Automatic annotation (TrEMBL):
GO terms for molecular function: isomerase activity. Pfam families: PrpF. The lineage of its organism: Eukaryota, Fungi, Dikarya, Ascomycota, Pezizomycotina. InterPro entries: PrpF-like. This is Uncharacterized protein. The chain crosses the membrane at residues 530-549. PANTHER family: ACONITATE ISOMERASE-RELATED (PTHR43709), DUF453 DOMAIN PROTEIN (AFU_ORTHOLOGUE AFUA_6G00360) (PTHR43709:SF2). It comes from the Eukaryota. Keywords: Isomerase, Membrane, Transmembrane, Transmembrane helix.
Amino acid sequence: MPGEELPRMASRPQNRIAAAYYRGGTSRAIIFNQKDLPTDKAAWGPIFLGSIGSPDPVHGRQLDGMGGGISSLSKACVIGPPTVPDADVDYTFAALGVFDSSVDYSSNCGNMSAAVGPFAVDSGLVPVPPEMVFKVVRGALLTPGDDAETMFTVRIHNTNTGKLINATFPIVPGDADAPSGVEAASHGTFTIDGVPGSAAPVKLDFVRPAGSRTGKLLPTGHLVDQVETPFGLVRATLIDVGNPCCFVSAADLGVEDPTMSAAAIDADENLLSRLEAVRRRSAVMMGLAKSIDDVAGSVPKIGFVSRPTFDAKGAAVVVRAMSVGQPHKAVPVTVALALAAAAKLDGSVVADCVVGSQPSVDGSGSIDVHHASGSLTVGSKFDADGNLEHATEATVAEALRVTTMNNKAVEHDTMHPDNKESCKISHCSVRIINEDYKAARDWILRACLARQGLLEGEAPPNVMASCDRIPASLNLRQLKEIQTDILEQFNLEKSAVQSVVKDIRRVLLAYQSLIRDRDQPAGLNQRTDVVMELAFNLAFLAWILIFIVNY
């Protein structure tokens, strides 16, 4: 109502915590650098829940945060320095409840694993060696538009499972904020079903992924177990690859259309209750919980499998999976990896549904899996003793670059960690890297390379004669930043860089002088001279008066 006084809200001090927003495969998550979070892990939960918009018990839309109302969009990741040998970073995953305040660390997310490597490079947690940076930037300058890519691998230690993951992806020249001078590529031609458009690929190699939680490939020691449920016995293969998983036959669940959509599954309450009953009893059989009431929401994963039909033409097996109580709109990567391993175990529920040439146990052949949004290719490789060595999958990851890395902030009330209202996204400020700045940096670097004789067949540029290549918006401070950046990142002679920058500085000063003269109104200089002369005369007269009064 007009004139009505608004209620006053009590103010509380808040701290801003840097965060990034990435997509990995068919999932999205807020990613935090561990150094920006409290040292007490117990204090992380309120930050995660507030930033994602949970709990949302009424609407389940997470409109008060950055979540999307489904489990695959309600996630948080923490990346920090490695705590084990043979790893570049530690990666901790948290599955966040949509309707409740659950923060579950009991499993890993394979999709978001694809974003860890790019984040580590983009944030500077994993520096790219100077020789590789030089190769990437020099290649981009010499052959612009060339499709040749430089691949970089980040070794990831997933703290949830204790397993190692190698993420390999292309790197490209970065902007002025890129810590190493390069960044993970976002653009590319690789596509995955369930995500529109294309992007750069990320290959994930899960190293010795068996026994992520139970210590065994087959936690019960059986290829097939009989799971007791209120609606009778159900045959299931219980396997632990990437995450503990349970696979059952669609026919045993009474599913008439095994290629049904996620929405159709979500609308079938009878099917949902059956899947959850099998999942909870399987968890107890796998040693993940003492009773069905103690089972975590995120593990074990469960999926029902079937032989391909006309709708799944070209796939070797069909799967529909659940994730934290919700039908997954594609398939969790760890479920796909577990399914690829189970497909090689003759007699398993999965292997019985595979059509076509079944992959050999000792080979590294891949298998096409049909899921709710299309298909996915995954592979697994066992050694001669039957131990699972690798499980692989290719997906995509990209930063949702609404803002740059350190400009995304989350407010966290450290005095009231249990108050979810105090943990909100405070702002999304945008720092735009001027295209002129990037063009200037690239041209100056090329000029430095040429002046040092590192560009074959190209003479050192005459900077004074090429001033049209220097953006007018470039200022002296930016020029100094570019010089420092080039000297720090590239093994170039300091004198060559300084010589080029000195010439450009002369051009900038001359150009700015011309601009000032051009923009001044006619007669301004003359009027300025008259004013200055009058001011001088008045000051001189005042000095004479002071002298007379005092003496």
